[in-house]
Amino acid sequence: MKSLTKHLTADELRIVWILTAVLLMGIGGKIWISSHRGADSTSTPHASSASVPTP
């Protein structure tokens, strides 16, 4: 990381860290949402079309 700090100013380095944090939070959020969608679909029963009587 020291080689990167030699070429960037303090403001540019701060922007790089912020963008890295946003990227990691976005990836973590997608993983969290996908893992909770799977848990919700197994825990809540859904009526199937076979159980609905036809007129």
Describe the model:
This protein is mainly α. It is 73% helix and 0% strand. It has two helices and no strands. The mean pLDDT is 79.
Show the helix and strand layout:
Blueprint: H1 2-7, H2 10-43
Mean pLDDT: 79
Beta fraction: under 5%
Q: Give the proportion of residues in helices.
A: over 70%
How does the major sheet shape up?
A: none
* Rg from Cα: 23 Å
Overall geometry comes to rod-shaped
Question: Distance N terminus to C terminus?
Answer: 70 Å
Please report the number of helical segments.
2
Structural class: mainly alpha
List the uncertain runs.
none
Total beta-strand segments: 0
SSE pattern: HH
What's this, in brief?
The chain is an all-alpha fold and 55 residues long.
Top keywords for this entry?
2 helices, mainly alpha
